[in-house]
């Protein structure tokens, strides 16, 4: 009886088994018929590296991958609404895939994404925006041998500056940025009374003039042990100058 059933339904079974095998191969990240799997999370994609930029109170993470060159450094120039990428070892023509956090650099017109303006060594180049979501925009940028710098510029920000974003942050968690520790904020050039703490933590300055973000319940014991003073009453209120 089983043999009769199999002889009748073997084609259907083969299709079902083939479907699940194909699904497993796709989820496993194996290339099938030349189609590569799409990684939604750039931070878990092994093809991408992470570059970190400090801007204001935050450290931003920028996923990228590059061919035939290396990244020397990246800088954000918020006065010009530009992300600057410096290249090394460009021994052949190559390309850069750059996943740009919207909180670091973005521009919209009528709530729609506006195109970036991309230069390589001062020459405009054609690029492709290959992915976009609520958190980031991903650009594919070609460059020629011996290229030294790529500039990604919010193109119309001079005409409508209120629509541009550069280093803008609101409260919330994201893999693309995190609030720097208080000592790191101080070393980056932020004044002592302007340092930010995470929500529910309070900024104090210890007797050695080093800042710390502590829980309210910990402050009396901490002051008793090491001295210091409270800088602000609430983590996100304007900070008055201390005497």
Task: Count the domains.
Answer: 3
Q: What does the overall shape look like?
A: elongated
In total, how many beta strands? 17
If you compute it from the alpha carbons, what radius of gyration comes out, rounded to the nearest whole angstrom?
25 Å
Uncertain spans:
23-37, 233-243
What structural class do the secondary elements suggest?
alpha+beta
Enumerate how many helices there are, as a single number: 3
User: Share of helix among residues?
Assistant: 10-25%
User: On the 0-100 scale, what is the average pLDDT?
Assistant: 79
Largest sheet: 6 strands, antiparallel
Distance between the termini: 93 Å
Q: Could you describe the 3D structure shown?
A:
This protein is α+β, with helices and mostly antiparallel strands and 243 residues long. The chain has three domains: 1-37, no CATH class; 49-166, no CATH class; 181-230, no CATH class. 16% of the residues lie in helices and 36% in strands. The protein has helices at 2-27, 182-187, 219-226; strands at 49-55, 58-66, 70-77, 82-88, 94-101, 105-109, 112-113, 116-120, 123-124, 128-132, 136-143, 149-154, 164-166, 177-179, 202-205, 211-214, 229-230. Strands 1, 2, 5, 10, 11 and 14 form a six-stranded antiparallel beta sheet that branches. It has a five-stranded antiparallel beta sheet with strand order 3-4-12-8-9, with no helix packed on it. A hairpin with a 3-residue loop joins β10 (128-132) and β11. It starts with a helix and ends in a 13-residue tail after the last strand.
């Amino acid at each position: 009886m089983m043999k009769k059933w199999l002889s009748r339904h073997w084609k259907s079974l083969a299709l079902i088994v083939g479907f699940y095998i194909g699904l497993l191969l796709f989820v496993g990240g194996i290339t099938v018929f030349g189609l590569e799997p799409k990684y939604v999370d750039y931070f878990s994609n092994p093809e991408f590296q992470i570059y970190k930029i400090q801007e204001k109170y935050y450290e931003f993470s920028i996923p990228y991958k590059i061919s035939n060159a290396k990244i020397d450094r990246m800088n954000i120039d918020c006065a010009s609404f530009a992300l600057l990428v410096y290249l090394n070892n460009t021994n052949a023509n190559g390309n850069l895939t750059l996943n740009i956090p919207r909180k670091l650099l973005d521009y919209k017109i009528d709530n729609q994404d506006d195109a970036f303006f991309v230069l390589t060594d001062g020459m405009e180049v054609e690029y492709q925006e290959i992915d976009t979501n609520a958190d980031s925009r991903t650009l594919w940028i070609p460059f020629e041998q011996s290229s030294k710098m790529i500039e990604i510029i919010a193109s119309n920000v001079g005409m409508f500056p209120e629509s541009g974003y550069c280093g803008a942050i609101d409260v919330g968690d994201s893999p693309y940025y995190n609030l720097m520790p208080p000592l790191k904020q101080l070393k980056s050039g932020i004044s002592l009374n302007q340092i930010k703490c995470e929500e529910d933590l309070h900024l104090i300055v210890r007797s050695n003039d080093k800042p710390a973000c502590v829980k309210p319940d910990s402050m009396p014991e901490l002051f008793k042990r090491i001295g210091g003073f409270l800088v602000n009453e609430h983590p996100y209120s304007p900070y008055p100058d201390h005497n």
